[in-house]
Amino acid sequence: MTHYLIYDQIPDRMKKDSYFHFALADALIRQVNKHPEQTMLHFWPTDKKVILGMMDTKLPYLSDGISSLENEGYEVVVRPSGGLAVISDPGILNFSFIIAEPDNKKLSIDDGYEMMVAIVRQAFSAYGKEIKAYEITDSYCPGTFDLSINGKKFAGIAQRRFRRGIGVMIYLSVDGNQQERGQVIRNFYQTSLKGEETRWHYPDVNPDSMANLTELLDPKLTIQAVQDLLTQAVIKNTVTPLDRNVYDSELLTEYNLAYDKMIKRNEKILPKERENEKLP
C-alpha cells in the first residue's frame, strides 16, 4: 500500500533559508530509497530568487551577471539539479514528485519526465486545453519536456536520482509578471556572456515565449489552487495513508548531509558569510 507524505510547510527557523528546499528534496529522494512504499509530494513557493544550474557556473562573466541580478533585488542560489537559470518568486510553484523505482521495472529518464507530464495534464484536464511537451528553445531553461499551451511555456521539468530514488521537479508559472521574469534572465545571460562564444549553449531568451497559468487557463488560479489540483491528480480518490510535514530523525540526518553539500556547492561560486542553519 502506498503511503503519501506531503511536504508543504517550512519549520519556522528555516523560512528565510535559501538552501532549505534543495537540501530537503535531496533528503526525500534518499529517504524514499529506504522506504519504497512511500510517495512524497514536495511543494515550495519562494521569495524572489534566481536559481542557477551548474551549466551557468561556466559563464565567462558570471560574477557580473550575479551582480546584475542582485541589483534587481534577486537572491541567487545554485541548485544541484537541472542545467540553466530559472526564476522563483511568490507567483511560481515548485513541485517535486518523489518515488522509489519499482522492483519489477527500470524507469528511464524519459519515464520520469512522462510521469510528471501525466500529472500536470490530469491536474488541468477540466480546462480542456491541450498541454504539449516539447522544447521552447527561446524560453529560459529550455528542455525537451517544457510544458506549453498555445505555444507559450508555463513549466519546466528537471530530474534527480539517488540509487533507486527518483525525484521529478517542476516549476509552474502561476501568476505574476512573467514578461519581466524573462527579461531578467535575458539580461543575466547578456551580462554574463558579453557577446563571447562558449562551448556551452545558453538561450537567447525571448520574454514573450512564456506565460502564466492565470493567462493561459484561469485568472482565478492561485498557488494553493494549483497545489490542490496537483495533489488530487496524484492521490485521486485514494484511501491510503497520507501525512504532512513529517520530519523524523532519519529524514533530518539525510537533510543535514544534503545541506552541507548545498553550502559547499554554493560557496565555490557564491562565496559569502552565512550562518549554519542545520536542523537539530
UniProtKB/TrEMBL annotation:
EC class name: transferase
Active-site residues per Swiss-Prot or TrEMBL entry: C141
UniProt keyword Glycosyltransferase present: no
SUPFAM superfamilies documented for this protein: Class II aaRS and biotin synthetases
Domain BPL/LPL catalytic: 35-221
Catalytic reaction annotation: N(6)-octanoyl-L-lysyl-[glycine-cleavage complex H protein] + L-lysyl-[lipoyl-carrier protein] = N(6)-octanoyl-L-lysyl-[lipoyl-carrier protein] + L-lysyl-[glycine-cleavage complex H protein]
An annotated Gene Ontology molecular function: lipoyl(octanoyl) transferase activity
EC number(s) stated in the UniProt entry for this protein: 2.3.1.204
Gene3D superfamilies in the record: Bira Bifunctional Protein, Domain 2 (3.30.930.10)
Site label Lowers pKa of active site Cys, positions: K153
Keyword vocabulary terms for this entry: Acyltransferase, Transferase
UniProt-listed GO biological process terms: lipoate biosynthetic process; protein lipoylation
Pathway: Protein modification; protein lipoylation via endogenous pathway; protein N(6)-(lipoyl)lysine from octanoyl-[acyl-carrier-protein]
Misc note: The reaction proceeds via a thioester-linked acyl-enzyme intermediate.
HAMAP family recorded: LipL
Record's function text: Catalyzes the amidotransfer (transamidation) of the octanoyl moiety from octanoyl-GcvH to the lipoyl domain of the E2 subunit of lipoate-dependent enzymes.
Family, as annotated: Belongs to the octanoyltransferase LipL family.
Protein name: Octanoyl-[GcvH]:protein N-octanoyltransferase
Source organism of the structure: Jeotgalibaca dankookensis
